[in-house]
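Tokens for chain A. Residues wanted.
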């Protein structure tokens, strides 16, 4: 740390802080953008489907059939819509997209239940949106299964029970709140995008204005120039992490069960990773627009293979192996471990070690390219 007492370096560092804070666009990107993106993705990215349009043809017209229909619409999963009055019209409405699902209740529903027999109801689903159709199927099956258990209990009918019973206990997210899964991923996503774009933009601004060559005339080395550029970015990107964390806790009520020091360590490592990528982009780009276009090709695969949007387990085996080369994957695993599980460095050390290696390799490579550019 021999460069700390250097008055030339100190003046350069102060100049970089002033220059960065005067750039309102970059400050806006680091402070306001994470709030907007976290709120947007946190509310929009949800596997839950509510208020699906359900049409019903009830041939039974009995108290039991009315109870069955009521159980389907009770929790807001389905809303009743006009079925058209016949099976053909119901099918047409599903086909035309006016209904998401159709239910046909047989006329002998109540009689079969009283005779301890299993009635069958017909479900018609729009399978164009396979994800929604799959979720709707699961909802309907679960609701009808629960309705059947309640009905058989009332009629003193004891169905066959398997010898082995299961009892599920959800830990870390007992309420199965989908925002708790998405918010840590979006925090990593926001830091990744903002870090790469801001770090590349700060260097390209110097290149476009021609002041980068002027810095070489000052009594500082190229290493000190790079360090003076990095320190303000580290501070502002760390503010980005804090803002994202406050939004996640304050708006989405994501728990913070771990140690703040663990979060600070992994965030600092990943900040160096994204800054290194941004510095490398600035060395191969001639202007900010070109760097932004290149960053899209970098960010898209990094985000898609990180587990931020969809679970890694749902990906094909080939892409699961490719994701091992993605530093964002390890950062998101650390975020979820610290926030949701409350684990510390003693558990997360493999991911932290990988992030440390990424930071060292990428920072060394980007610094080498930056020094060659100044030479």
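Reply:
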């Amino acid at each position: 740390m021999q460069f700390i007492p250097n008055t030339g370096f100190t003046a350069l560092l102060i100049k970089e802080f002033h220059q960065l804070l005067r750039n309102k666009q970059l400050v806006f990107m680091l402070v306001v953008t994470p709030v907007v993106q976290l709120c947007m993705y946190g509310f929009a990215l949800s596997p839950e489907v509510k208020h699906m349009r359900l049409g019903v043809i009830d041939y039974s017209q009995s108290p039991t059939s009315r109870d069955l229909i009521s159980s389907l619409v009770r929790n807001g999963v389905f809303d009743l819509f006009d079925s058209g009055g016949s099976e053909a019209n119901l099918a047409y409405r599903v086909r035309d997209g006016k209904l998401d699902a159709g239910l046909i209740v047989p006329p002998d529903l109540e009689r079969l239940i009283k005779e301890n027999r299993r009635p069958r109801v017909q479900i018609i689903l729009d399978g164009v949106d396979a994800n929604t159709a799959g979720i709707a199927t699961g909802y309907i099956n679960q609701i009808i299964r629960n309705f059947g258990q309640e009905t058989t209990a009332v009629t003193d009918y004891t169905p066959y029970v398997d010898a082995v019973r299961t009892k599920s206990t959800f830990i870390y997210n007992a309420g199965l709140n989908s925002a708790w899964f998405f918010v840590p991923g979006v925090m990593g996503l926001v830091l990744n995008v903002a870090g790469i774009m801001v770090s590349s933009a700060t260097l390209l601004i110097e290149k476009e204005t021609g002041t980068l060559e002027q810095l070489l005339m000052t009594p500082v080395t190229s290493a000190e120039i790079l360090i003076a550029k990095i320190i303000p970015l580290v501070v502002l990107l760390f503010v980005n992490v804090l803002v994202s964390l406050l939004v996640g806790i304050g708006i989405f009520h994501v728990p913070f069960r771990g140690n703040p020091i663990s979060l600070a360590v992994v965030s600092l490592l990943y900040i160096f990773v994204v800054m290194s990528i941004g510095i490398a982009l600035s060395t191969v780009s001639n202007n900010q627009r070109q760097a932004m276009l290149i960053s899209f090709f970098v960010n898209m695969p990094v985000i898609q293979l990180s587990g931020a949007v969809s679970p890694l387990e749902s990906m094909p085996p080939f892409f699961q192996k490719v994701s091992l080369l993605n530093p964002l994957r390890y950062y998101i695993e650390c975020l979820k471990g610290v926030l949701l599980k409350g684990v510390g460095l003693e558990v997360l050390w493999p991911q932290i070690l990988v992030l440390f290696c990424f930071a060292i390799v990428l920072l060394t490579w980007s610094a080498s390219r930056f020094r060659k550019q100044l030479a």
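The chain has two domains: 9-45+175-374, 52-154. The beta strands are 52-58, 78-81, 101-105, 122-125.
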